[in-house]
Amino acid sequence: MDVWRLFLSVLCLLPLGACGGSAGKGDGTPYMCVVRDPGDVVDGGSCEALTTDYAQCVDDSWAACASDSGEYSRIQESISTVARVQAFEEIATLLFDPKADPSAMDFLSARAKYQEDEGLDSRVVRRYDPHVDVPEGTDCSADGVPAMFPDYCVGPARLQPLILDALNAGYNDGNGASDPRVQAARVEAGLLWFLYVSTYKEGLTCTTKAKDCDSAYAYYTGGETDRGGIGLAGRVRSVSAYAHDRAWDGLLALRCWRDLDSGEVAGDLTLRELARDQLDRAVLFGLATVVRDRIYQYDATTGSEQDYHRAFVQTLAPSLYREAQAQSAADAMAFEAEISKLADDTVDVPALLSILDRVFDCP
What we know:
By secondary structure, the chain is mainly α. 57% of the residues lie in helices and 0% in strands.
């Protein structure tokens, strides 16, 4: 098998179109195309990639590029975003356990980690969501603007208040006020929402700042290699290896675009949108699979453990409303209605899962 894979890799050095177009960097150095073992790709059932999607080492519509190596090719060796995703994991160790109550000191430590200089909070407060159309020039840092455009200014309008409120309430709850697990779940869900939006946003601003492609890669994977991942990627991978694998393909598509369109300001916006759409479809599908899994966990547990999963779903499910509306107004309305029923435990879980499966059927 190793000999066969080596043979295929050598083939990809030749200008035969096996990796899509001419196989070279432009300076005469060929790209090494690494063929993945088919066992590395988890079966997605009836799902198929679009014909315009980037795919490593197959005869697609993309020219040869740095992504054909199978690894994300960093534009800058050091990516500051990695530390923020690692901070997420440190907070996770302190708080994100549905089976145990975090202490007041756990919440205090988590808040300190969250509010480190140039840390998570510094980016949450500035995060806007390019999925949402707003008037040109809308500035989420201006007074009153987040309240006017809360869906677009999702960081300052929704996520930062949610996360800080949960951390502070959790500190009080940890001192015996109520159930701290609910607050921990809200923090986890809020941060995952932030990581998702950040992956998409950085893929856009990469147009004028190439290193932001690195940030998109890091916000999803935490800077991991070999198709691994922590943070959002770790949670997606734990429930849908296929979705995670497709997200990695999307990251490679983003980097391939920026390799082929390597000017200070990217000019091939058609290719950019193909890459960004491929990445967003996969990461959003992955986020939906995480929500789906927590709905199942809610239905299978009781007591404080169930409270954790309920609060998590109530907090993160709204991040899916936009796409649900785009797919089906009827399903979107039914989805929101069932999520609202979590508050008094009257939700029809099979119906809710069925809606999710219809709206998010393939990445």
